[in-house]
Design a protein that fits this description.
The complex is a heterodimer of chains A (about 110) and B (about 120). Chain A has about 110 residues and is mostly beta strands. Chain A has strands at about 5, 10-15, 20-25, 30-40, 45-50, 55-60, 60-65, 70-75, 85-95, 100, 105-110. In chain A, a hairpin with a 5-residue loop joins β4 and β5 (about 45-50). Chain A starts with a strand and ends with a strand. Classes of the chains: A mainly beta (about 110), B mainly beta (about 120).
Chain lengths: ~110, ~120
């Protein structure tokens, strides 16, 4: 059974810091991996999708990578801002299945 | 292009009542999903569908039923509501990628359900 762990569970940093969020899967046969942002009381907003033939994706200050040999992904946020404060969730779909399985998220707070 | 639309946004049920959460998407996606999210937790998959007429159980299907008569619609039925079903429910959809597996996942805004 695929399980997803996100570390750390919570993080509080001063504005301007570069930071790394981690996501790991018990089954490393990940086909696609997606990172989401969720603001309190809101839905999920897609940030980055790493598809089967890719190893990383970049959007603005965000960079996500996937190491398929280990089943680990990292989300790098450069020059963090208070507006980045949210919960970040990763989700992966394992080869041969149709189900995206989610991690429990990292709650990020960026202090002004 | 509305994306994934869920109704209602909020609902309060009494124990034992039944209701249907509606989900529709206009992106011609063949994969659709229902998740629930409990406070401070990640998302748990309830049911999913890979096309019209095909549904399958996820991690936490007990107490729920689904149907998929059209590509666009994927309603979630709660029978005999229980306090343990108090949660936020999210519907999502994706287009099946080449070689199998799902493409980018798009979410609705969620339906907040309270069972008293």
């Amino acid at each position: 059974k695929q399980e997803v762990t996100q570390i750390p569970a919570a993080l509080s940093v001063p504005e301007g810091e570069n930071l790394v969020l981690n996501c790991s899967f018990t089954d490393s046969a990940i086909y696609n991996l997606q990172w989401f942002r969720q603001d309190p009381g809101k839905g999920l907003t897609s940030l980055l999708l790493i598809q089967s033939s890719q190893r990383e994706q970049t959007s603005g200050r965000l960079n996500a990578s996937l190491d398929k040999s280990s089943g680990r992904s990292t989300l790098y946020i450069a020059a963090s801002q208070p507006g980045d404060s949210a919960t970040y969730l990763c989700a992966g779909i394992t080869s041969g299945t149709y189900k995206y399985i989610f991690g429990t998220g990292t709650r990020l707070k960026v202090l002004a | 292009n509305a994306g994934v639309t869920q109704t209602p946004k909020f609902r309060i049920l009494k124990i034992g009542q039944s209701m249907t959460l509606q989900c529709t998407q206009d992106m011609n996606h063949n994969y659709m999903y229902w998740y629930r999210q409990d406070p401070g937790m990640g998302l748990k998959l309830i049911y999913y569908s890979v096309g019209a007429g095909i549904t399958d159980k996820g991690e936490v299907p007990n107490g729920y039923n689904v149907s998929r008569s059209t590509t666009e619609d994927f309603p979630l039925r709660l029978e005999l509501a229980a306090p343990s079903q108090t949660s936020v429910y999210f519907c999502a959809s994706s287009y099946s990628g080449a070689g199998g597996g799902g493409g980018e996942l798009f979410f609705g805004e969620g339906s907040r359900l309270t069972v008293l």
